[in-house]
Design goal:
single chain, about 210 residues, alpha/beta, Rossmann fold, three-stranded parallel β-sheet, two-stranded parallel sheet, 5 helices
Amino acid sequence: RGARAVVCTDLNEASARETAASIGEQASGVGLDVADEAAIEALVAQTESEIGPIDLFVSNAGYGQRGGLDLPTEDWKRMMDVHVWSHLAAARAVVPGMLERGGGYLLNTASAAGLLTQIDSGPYAVSKHAAVALAEWLAINYGDQGIGVSVLCPQAVRTNILGPGTDIDRPIPAALYLAVAQVLAYVFELRKRGTLRRPVRLPDVPVPGDFP
């Protein structure tokens, strides 16, 4: 049936507005730093006041950074703020209202690194594992109260996180990338089949050549 209204957020407000424009008149775009819990709370309150109840909240922010024990503690903390605490802040803000209405859905994005690891980025791997654990906890604790929770753990997806200047912009075979449309199409299909809450493995992608 689609959404009556969509609110898109991005650290770069112009990007949020551009995304909203591509969706249509029912969408709006705002700037948001997901590491700021108070900002998330304010956005949720404003959205519910001006537009209406939030039925689906998608937590999708993320970034990459190489390094491990050599990185300063602040870099590790920032990664946790964006990849973990933002999901928690969103849940704190929207779940109470969903419970009152008897239902709602949280769709969080983690990474395949949250199931395996990211060899060249300690904070990325650790934070994504924590994001998966948080989603599992939310699903178990609120699933019987009408709250659906899913966590996406895709491999490399062709977004700005892998673009120039991200500190991880190294050559990667094109066949290893997933397009955003591929991931979304699979999510919609699983949702239609009622299997979105169960672990599903995407088809293997054969890649020619030898890679370290």
